[in-house]
């Protein structure tokens, strides 16, 4: 009984440790004073200043656009790659999976320096495209890693059965394989979006020409006390929470629709 109580207390403290800073940030984003420790009253002034600050709004715009594009492209590329690997021979699949794990295990700073040297050697002007390509590059391995377990759980003869029943290769892919691995694709897309939205180290090294994401903007603002950081952070929390809800609710809705169609 005592052990059970201790476990509950430990879990409660852990949750408090993780979520208290988030709650603190949201509350002080509505603070009327510049203090980051004393709440002086309710106010929306920091949100007004944030929306009037063109640099902040640009950083939000670039962050969302980069994250959405990187998620869509990396999810498609990673899913197709994973499906192709599932049909490859064991040696090629094993080598490719090991290579795919390298960017995940590699420290961000090493990847960032490598990309910086690559773009510099190719004389590529750093900006929106270099930032987007870099985000796609480090998101694809996570998509492949999320989709592969779902493909392994499929019946290896399911594709041949679909082809024997008259499906074209494209129909077998879109109507048979993809619906079976939808949860893995959604998980990969969620991870890709989060990784892209949150990235700082790689983005800091490969961006240029005034293209900054939210992480870089917060880093530059953290050198001086600016309560607008709390407002910007609250907006980020809201966006991430919304995306999480959409990506978690969508599969449930799709599953219910499938059950209704079967009935």
Looking at this protein, list some descriptive labels.
263 residues; mainly alpha; MetI-like fold; 0% strand; globular
Detail the topology: elements first, then pairings:
Layout: H1 2-28, H2 45-52, H3 54-86, H4 90-105, H5 108-121, H6 128-152, H7 158-164, H8 169-180, H9 182-198, H10 201-206, H11 214-221, H12 228-262
Helix pairs in contact: 1-12, 2-12, 3-6, 3-9, 4-6, 6-9, 7-8, 9-12
Characterize the structure shown.
With 263 residues, the protein is mainly α. It has a domain at 54-233: MetI-like fold (Orthogonal Bundle), CATH 1.10.3720. It has twelve helices and no strands. The longest helix is centred in the C-terminal third of the chain and has 35 residues, at 228-262.
Q: What is the terminal separation in angstroms?
A: 46 Å
Determine Rg (CA atoms, Å): 23 Å
Number of helices: 12
**Which structural category do the helix and sheet elements fall into?**
mainly alpha
Kindly report the CATH topology of the domain at 54-233.
Answer: MetI-like fold
Helical coverage, percent range = over 70%
Number of strands: 0
Mean pLDDT: 84
- Write the CATH homologous superfamily of the domain at 54-233: MetI-like
The SSE string, one letter per element, is: HHHHHHHHHHHH
Question: Major sheet: size, sense and barrel closure?
Answer: none
Share in β-strands: under 5%
CATH-level-2 architecture of the domain at 54-233? Orthogonal Bundle
């Amino acid at each position: 009984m005592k052990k059970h109580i201790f476990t509950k207390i430990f879990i409660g403290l852990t949750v408090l440790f993780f979520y208290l800073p988030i709650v603190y940030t949201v509350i002080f984003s509505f603070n009327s004073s510049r203090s980051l420790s004393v709440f002086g009253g309710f106010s929306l002034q920091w949100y007004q200043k944030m929306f009037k600050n063109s640099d902040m709004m640009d950083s939000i715009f670039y962050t969302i656009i980069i994250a959405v594009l990187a998620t869509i492209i990396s999810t498609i590329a990673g899913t197709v790659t994973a499906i192709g690997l599932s049909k490859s021979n064991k040696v090629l699949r094993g080598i490719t999976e090991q290579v795919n794990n390298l960017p995940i295990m590699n420290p961000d700073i090493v990847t960032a320096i490598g990309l910086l040297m690559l773009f510099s050697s190719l004389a590529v002007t750093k900006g929106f495209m270099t930032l987007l390509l870099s985000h796609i590059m480090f998101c694809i391995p996570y998509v492949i890693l999320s989709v592969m377990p779902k493909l392994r759980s499929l019946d290896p003869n399911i594709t041949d059965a679909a082809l024997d029943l008259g499906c074209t290769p494209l129909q077998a892919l879109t109507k048979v394989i993809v619906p079976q691995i939808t949860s893995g694709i959604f998980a990969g897309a969620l991870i890709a979006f989060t990784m892209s939205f949150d990235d700082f180290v790689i983005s800091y090294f490969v961006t240029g020409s005034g293209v900054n994401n939210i992480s870089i903007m917060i880093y530059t603002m953290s050198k001086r006390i600016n309560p607008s950081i709390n407002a910007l952070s609250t907006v980020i929390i809201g966006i991430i929470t919304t995306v999480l809800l959409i990506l978690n609710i969508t599969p449930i809705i799709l599953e219910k629709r499938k059950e209704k169609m079967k009935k």
